[in-house]
Amino acid sequence: MSGPSSGRKWGKRLAVGAVAVLLIGGGAVAMSWSTLKAEWAAKAVRAAGSDEARAAAAANLVALGESGLPRVVELLKSDDAAGCLAVAAALREAWKDTPPADPTFAAKCRPILADAAAYSEAGKDAVLELAADAMRCPDADLAALGRAAVRAALTATAPDAVARAAAVASLPEVGLKAELVPLLRDERAEVRRAAMMAVGPAARGEPVIGDEELFPWLHDPDVEVRAVCESALATRGMDGDQIAAARKLTHPDAAERLKLLLDLRWGRDTVRDPGPWLERLSRDADPAVRAGAARVACECRLTFAGWLDRLATEDPDGTVRDVAAYYRAKAAEIRPAGFVDR
After folding, report:
1. Can you give the residue range of the structural domain that contains 319?
2. Alpha-carbon distance 243 to 150, whole Å?
3. What is the pLDDT of residues 165-198, one digit of tens each?
């Protein structure tokens, strides 16, 4: 039988159920309200008529935290370059008091960089500074995401965007300088220039490209690339005479390369050690240049020129082999007394 106590139990159950419904409904309303605010903030970013208005709207969107994150990512996937820059700047401003070494930084930055490969070119460009910040974070996974974001930005079609990505890639903490070497052969002069500025100058540690490998860019079609290459070689310890010799060494006209042989033979005041230059010329594509290198080596009385043996025995051109063999024998006759070949 049911009685007053049974009625009270049902009343309590109904009350609890009502409260649960209200709580669930309230949570749904709150969630819906946060989503709406994020949508309005994102629309305000897109519709902004000035940089100031756009920055304010982006700050409002970022201030929403996790509820605004999907709209931030959506903007970074769009081709709205101004909007991408605004939200990226707002993110960095919001996190300015959270250093990369703080674990909170990794938690905030990870969802932004995790989707970087899917961003538009404008978005990839916009998050470059965030990616650089990630490199200073002790979280290895976040650093890997930052490095991947920089790699993605290097594939941009806009030369200025690639140049900015190259500048970030060359930072020591990013460690992608070696991946910039192929960009030296890019068809866009702006990209070649940026790559040369990144990998050309002397830096701590092992260079990602050698001195001699840089010489061909002294003949780049772009005057600025040539100038940057020359400056880079100067930072590596090469003086004006050596750079002039490098320019002749890699000149596309064999006649100019033959002129270098004359400089090495008669211009000892400018190129004091002809040996390394003659060895380079011994690998020239033109047989006349290779044969000339053998002759000048003998005339300069080089005592250590093992490459003469290679020319005399292995050169594909018979005339070069004969000439090299002749001058090798002649060089042996004029070796100083007490010389021991090692």
Report:
1. 257-337
2. 33
3. 999 999 998 999 999 999 999 999 999 999 999 9
